[in-house]
Amino acid sequence: MGLKRLQEKPATRMNAEERRQQILDVAIRLFSQKGFRGTTTKEIALAAGVNEAIIFRHFATKKDLYSAILDQKACTPNIQEFETSVDEAMSRKDDRAVFETIALHILEKHERDDTFLRLLFYSALERHELADMFFRNQITNRYRRLASYIKQRIADGAFRRVDPMTATHAFLGVIVHHAQINKFYGRDLLNISNRLAAQRFTDLFFSGVLAPPSKRNRLSGRPRRTTLN
User: Fold this and answer.
1) CATH tag, 3-60
2) What percent of the chain has pLDDT over 70?
3) Which of 59, 116, 174, 180 could form a disulfide with 65 if both were Cys (CB 3.0 to 4.6 A apart)?
């Protein structure tokens, strides 16, 4: 593909914030399609209808651009609403709501927008610095947060004595793998809705970690099925 075909439209007059957002959107699209090694700032500038100097005016370094990509993908209203829902479920120790909410969010997110998933794969395969930035800023914190909750529920007697981080990897690994299979290969192997998948994977997880019923039923925070809105 020639460079001319990358250009979407001639530059139009935008304010600084609009131009910055346009450049960011174009960069995300190109990076997710061609990888980081295969995309140059010249191509981003051409596709955005600006010169390279404009790119560096808004993003002084490539690291600034990568950080902005993470911020845009991790700080949307949907993400904030999701975080609030999980926090509330954790505070009332509603185990099923915690795990089903997390599972459904992951499945829905990757179904709606696969650009972030592609960025992560490209960055990891190319050993790009964005992979380490995402791992440190997003994955590590979320894994530790869920592991901490599992540890608390073990202390409460609701969950069996398992290693919290191993349990976290087991649960999230299944969900992410299912999302990837659906996105890249379709639903031929397991053709069910995301909501039903979230419920079933949570059931399977609970079958391994829940404490015996006689002990669990004495707890006010015992797992129960919650209808997710």
Assistant:
1) 1.10.10.60
2) 86
3) 59
